[in-house]
Amino acid sequence: MSEAIEGERTFADKFPEEARIVRAALLGSFLALTLGAIFGIIQTLHRTGVFRGLIDSTDYYTSLTAHGVFLALSFTTFFLVGLFTWAVVRSLDRPLINTKITWTWYGLMAAGMTMTGISILAGFVDSIEMSADVLFTFYAPLQAHPMFYAGLAVFIVGSWIAGADYFRTWLAWKREHPDERIPLQTFMVLTTMAMWYIASSAVAASVLIFLLPWSLGLIDQVNPTLTRTLFWFFGHPVVYFWLMPAYLLWYTVLPKIAGGRLFSDPLARVVFVLFLLLSTPVGIHHQYLDPGIAEGFKFISMTNTMFLLLPSLLTAFTVVASVEYGARQRGGSGLLGWLTDLPWRKPEFTGMMLAGLMFAAGGFSGMVNAGMNINYMIHNTIWVPGHFHLTVGTAVALTFMAATYWLWPQITNKPIYSRSVGLFQVVLWFIGMALMSNAMHAQGILGVPRRTAEPEYSGFDYPTMFGGFEELNIQIAIGGTLLFVSTVLFIGNLVLTMGNPKVSGLAETLPPALSGPDDAPRVLDNLRLWVGIAVTLVVLAYMLPLAAIINRGGLLGPGVGTYPVWLSPMLDALANAATALLGAIGDESAALVEVIR
Amino acid sequence: MGRNETAHGSANDVSGDIEEFDPIGTLTLIGIYFVILVLSWVYIYYIEFLGRDLVIVG
Amino acid sequence: MHIHAYEKLWLAASLLLILFLLGSVTYGAVGPGVAMVTDSEPAIDAGALDEDERFSEPRVEQVGENEYEAYVLAFQFGFQPDPIVVPENSTVTFYVTSRDVIHGFEVVGTNANTMVVPGEVSEITVETDGPAEYGIVCNEYCGAGHHAMEGKLEVVPQSEFDERTNGGDGE
C-alpha cells in the first residue's frame, strides 16, 4: 500500500532540490541547442549557396565554431549532467550529498561556457578585438583569444566536479547498502564519468600547458602535431561521452516505454565497461592521414576502433530485444508483426527508435571512417559531418529531445503542452536528417570538402554520381531547414509546457531487467579494476606515439629545443620536455611578476 | 519511483521468463542489418574506393 | 551469466564482421598496395622553408625513368606550383608541406588526400593513367580565406609535359 502511494510521487516530489538542478542543466542544454540551431540554419543556407546575404563568407567560420562548440560541447554536456543527476538520485533513491557542491559545478560549467561563447561570438563584431574562429577542434597554430581556452578549462573542471559529485553520492549509498549491486543507471553514470576523466585529462593538459600560455604570449610556439594528437586523445572518447547518456536512455527507459523491460542487465554492464576500456586508445584514427605518425600506430588505433564496434553492435541487439519483449507483452505476434504493436504515437518512443535507426546507418559510415586506408577517400570531406550528424546529431540529439517528453513532466509536475506536436517534431527531425545526411555522404564521395563557406571552386567541377553537386546542395538545404523547424517546434513546445499548471499523477517507474544484476558476475562492478585496465590501455596506445611526436617536433614545435645526438630518442624527448617545461615555467613566473608589478 | 530496477533480488521472479522469451524478431531484424552492412562495405571498399584514380601506393 | 543463444550468435557475427573489416583494410594494403602517409620524411623547420632545397622552389622534377617528384608548398591561401603538371602513365611522389598553419591537400574525386602540417612533410606516391585534369582543394580549415584555397593537377601527354617544362621557368 505504502509502495503504491510512493509510486505516485514524481522525482520532483521526492527530490525537489535535485529536480531543480536537473531542470537548470536541461535548460542550459536547450539554450545551447537554440543557439546552435540558429547557426546551423545560417550555415546550411550559406554553404549550399541558397542564401548568402546574412553573413560574409569570412564570418562563416565564426558561425561554424559557435555551431560546433554550442552543440557538441554545451548542449550535450549540460543534458548529460542533468540526466546523470536524475539517474544517480533516482536509481540510488537518495539525495545528493551536498547540493552546494552541485550548484558549484553547475556554476563553473555555465561560467566556462559563457566565457568561451563570448570569445566566439565576439568574432562577429569587428569593433571588439576578440575572436575564436578556430572551430570546435581548435588546431594550433590557428590561435583563439585566451578567453576561449580559459573558458574551456573552467567548463571541463566543472564537469570533473560533477563526476566527483556522482561518485561521492554512490559511495555514501554504498555505506548504507554494503552488499548490493550498483544499480544499473548509477553503474552507467560512473563508468561514463571514469571514461571522461581519462579522456579530458589530455585536452586539459593541452589547453593549460600549451594553448593557453601560448595564446597569452608566454610561449612562442607549440608543436601542431602534439596539440592535435592531444585533442584527438580527447576528441574521440568525447563522442562516446555524448553517446553514453543516449545509451543509458535506450537501456533503461526505452524498454519501459515500449511496455517491456530490459532484456539483459549483465550485458548492459559489459557494454559500458567495454566503452570505458576502448573509447580512448583510438583517437589516432582521426589522424590516419597525418604525416609524422608511423603507420604502425595508425594500425593499432584502427584495430582498437574496430573492436569498439562490438559494444554498439551488442547494444543494438539488447535494445531491440527489449523492445520486442515489450511488443509481445502488448500482444504482438509474428516474426516481424510485433512491430505494429508498439506505441508509435508516443513521441518519446518514436523519437528514440528513429534515433536508433539512424545510429545504425551512422554505424556504416563510421566503419568507413575507421578503415585506415579507405580514409583517403573521405577524409575531411563532407562525408564526415554527414556521419556525425547521424550519430551525435541524431542518435544523441533526437534521443535527448524524445527523452525530454518523458522526463520533463517528472521533474516539473507539468504535462507536455502538446504531445502530438512532439510526435510531429521527432518525425520531422528524422526526415530532415535523412535528406541532409544522405546528401552530405554523397557529396563527400564526390570529394566536396567539409568546413568551407563556399564549396564551389573556380578551377574545376565535381564529378557526378548519386546526383550532381548542385542537386545534393538543394537536398542539404531542405534537410537543414526541416531540422531547424523541428528544433523550433521542440523549444516552442517546451516553453508552452512551462506555462502549464502543475498536476499530479505524472510519476513513472522503471521495471527490473529480465535477466537481472544477480546474473552479472560481481567483477563487473569492480570499477577500480576497469579504470586500471583502461588507463593501462591508454598508456600503451599513446606513450610511444606521443614520445615520437615530441621527439620529432619538440615539445614546443619545430625549431625549438635541442637534439643532443648522444642520447637515445626517448631520453632526448624527455630532455626536451624538461627544458621546455622549465623554460615555460620560467617565462610564466616572469610574466606573473610583471603582472603583479 | 520507489522501485529500484536493480537493487533487490527481483530477478528471481522473472528469471524463468528469459528462457521462454526468444527474440526471434530481433534476430531477423539484426540479420537483415548485418547483410546490409556487409554488402554496403563490399561496394564502398572494393568497388568505390579501390576503383578510384590515384591510389596511394607509397 | 545468462546470455541468450541468439545473443551469442550475434556476438559471433559481430566479431566476424570486425575481422572482415580489418581483413579488407589489410587486403587493400597488401593486394593493391595502398600505403599510408607516415613518418617517412624527417621533420622540417616550417620557418626556414626559403632555405630548403625542395620547398624554396616548389616544382615537379624527373628523378628516374618515368618517375617524378612534386615538391608542393601549401600556404594561406593557395598551393605552389599551380598548376602541378605531371606526365601520363608515370609514378609521381608528392612531398607536401606548409609554411604557416595546418592545411589539407586533396585531389578531388581521387584517393590522393593528405593532411599538411607545418614542420612535417607528407609523402604520397601515385601512379597516373591517361591525361586528366583534377581540382586540388584544401580540406582542412586554415583561416578566413580557406574556401578560396584551390589548385590544379594536370596529367598531360609526355610530349606536352616536355614542352611545358622546357618552355617554363621551373626545372
How is this structure best described in words?
The complex is a heterotrimer of chains A (597), B (58) and C (171). Chain A has 597 residues and is mainly α. Chain A contains 20 helices and no strands. Chain A has helices spanning 2-7, 11-14, 16-47, 60-92, 99-121, 146-176, 184-215, 224-235, 237-252, 254-257, 265-278, 295-307, 309-329, 347-370, 375-378, 383-412, 419-446, 469-498, 527-553, 569-596. In chain A, helix 7 (184-215) runs antiparallel to helix 8, helix 8 packs antiparallel against helix 19 (527-553) and helix 14 (347-370) packs parallel to helix 17 (419-446). Chain B has a domain at 10-49. Mean pLDDT of chain B is 78; it is low at 1-17. In chain C, strands 1, 2, 3, 5 and 8 form a 5-stranded mixed sheet that branches. A 5-stranded mixed sheet of chain C has the order 4-10-9-6-7. Chain C folds into 2 domains: 1-34; 46-167, Sandwich (Immunoglobulin-like), CATH 2.60.40.420. In chain C, 46% of the residues are buried. Chain C is globular, with a radius of gyration of 21 Å. Chain C has helices spanning 5-30, 158-167, and strands spanning 59-64, 67-75, 78-80, 84-87, 91-98, 103-107, 113-116, 122-127, 132-137, 150-156. The interface between A and C is large, with 76 and 71 residues.
Proportion of strand residues of chain C: 25-35%
Instruction: Give Rg of chain C in angstroms.
Output: 21 Å
**Number of DSSP strands of chain C?**
10
How far is the first residue's CA from the last residue's CA of chain B? 62 Å
CATH class bucket of the largest domain in chain C: Mainly Beta
- What is the correct CATH architecture of the largest domain in chain C? Sandwich
Name the average pLDDT of chain B. Answer: 78
Overall residue-averaged pLDDT value of chain C:
94
Task: Give the overall shape of chain B.
Answer: rod-shaped
Assembly of the depicted chains:
heterotrimer
Order of helices and strands of chain C: HEEEEEEEEEEH
The portion of residues forming beta strands of chain B comes to under 5%
Q: What name does the CATH topology of the largest domain in chain C carry?
A: Immunoglobulin-like
Give me the number of helical elements of chain B.
Answer: 2
**How many beta-strand elements of chain B?**
0
Name the helicity range of chain B.
55-70%
Number of domains of chain C: 2
- Enumerate how many helices of chain C there are, as a single number: 2
